[in-house]
């Protein structure tokens, strides 16, 4: 069986200077790139997810409540939806877009260019173990890792390569991951954006 790295939402709008910035996001992008360069054979497959909004309805709020609604972010066709420049994407085999017309937090809600969902793609490539990295630990990384475990993949979150929004939501996320049997390694980045 094979293993895969899932890079979650390392996009300009989620990094410093973006419309929904998470402190430490740029450093996470650079750290993922360094790890991929240092350990090129660690993963059989590398995939990435993108928040990719066309019109997600109430997911955008004016004003946002930062619970169910958020500032406009990762709108298709904007620079905010692009990967952060510190993330080297040469190893990424496929990008799974999520959230075009509704809120979507988990990469498992996304689809590749041919419409295939992430779980099906991983199974088709013989993957049974996944490592999850990206932004934000307490939102999309959490949701992606929980769905990976739910789908039967042996799941690890490399916390050193994640950035969290806030201590209270991070604590809730870590408890949920632990309760779902997700392995966690390291400590997440948590700083003011």
What does this entry look like structurally?
The chain has 193 residues and is α/β, with parallel strands linked by helices. 25% of the residues lie in helices and 21% in strands. α4 links the parallel β5 (154-163) and β6. α3 runs parallel beside α4. The relative contact order is 0.20. It holds the Pfam family Isochorismatase. Keywords: Hydrolase, Metal-binding, Pyridine nucleotide biosynthesis. Belongs to the isochorismatase family.
Provide a concise account of the structure shown.
This protein is of the alpha/beta class and 193 residues long. Helices cover 25% and strands 21% of the residues. The chain contains 4 helices and 6 strands, in the order βαββαβαβαβ.
Q: How would you sum up the global shape?
A: globular
- Determine the structural class based on helices, strands and strand pairing: alpha/beta
Largest sheet: 6 strands, parallel
Q: How large is the share of residues in beta strands?
A: 15-25%
Key attributes of the depicted protein:
single chain, 193 residues, alpha/beta, six-stranded parallel β-sheet, 25% helix, globular
Which secondary structure elements does this structure contain, and how are they paired or packed?
Elements: E1 2-8, H1 25-38, E2 45-51, E3 94-98, H2 118-124, E4 127-135, H3 137-150, E5 154-163, H4 167-179, E6 183-185
Parallel strand pairs: 1-2, 1-4, 2-3, 4-5, 5-6
Helix pairs in contact: 3-4
């Amino acid at each position: 069986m094979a293993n895969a790295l899932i890079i979650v939402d390392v996009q300009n709008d989620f990094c410093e200077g973006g419309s929904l910035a998470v402190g430490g996001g740029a450093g996470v992008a650079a750290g993922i790139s360094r790890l991929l360069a240092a350990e090129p054979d660690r993963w059989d497959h590398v995939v990435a997810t993108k928040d990719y909004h066309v019109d997600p309805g109430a997911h955008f709020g004016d004003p946002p409540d930062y619970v169910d609604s958020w500032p406009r972010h990762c709108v298709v066709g904007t620079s905010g939806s692009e990967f952060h420049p510190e993330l080297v994407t040469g190893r990424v085999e496929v990008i799974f877009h999520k959230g075009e017309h509704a809120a979507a937090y988990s990469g498992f809600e996304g689809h590749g260019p041919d419409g295939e969902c992430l779980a099906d793609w991983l199974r088709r490539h013989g993957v049974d173990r996944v490592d999850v990295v990206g932004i934000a630990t307490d939102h999309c990384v959490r949701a992606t890792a929980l769905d990976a475990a739910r789908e039967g993949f042996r799941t690890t979150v490399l916390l050193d390569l994640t950035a969290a929004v806030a201590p209270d939501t991070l604590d809730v996320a870590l408890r949920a991951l632990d309760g779902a049997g997700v392995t966690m390694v390291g400590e997440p980045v948590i700083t003011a954006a």
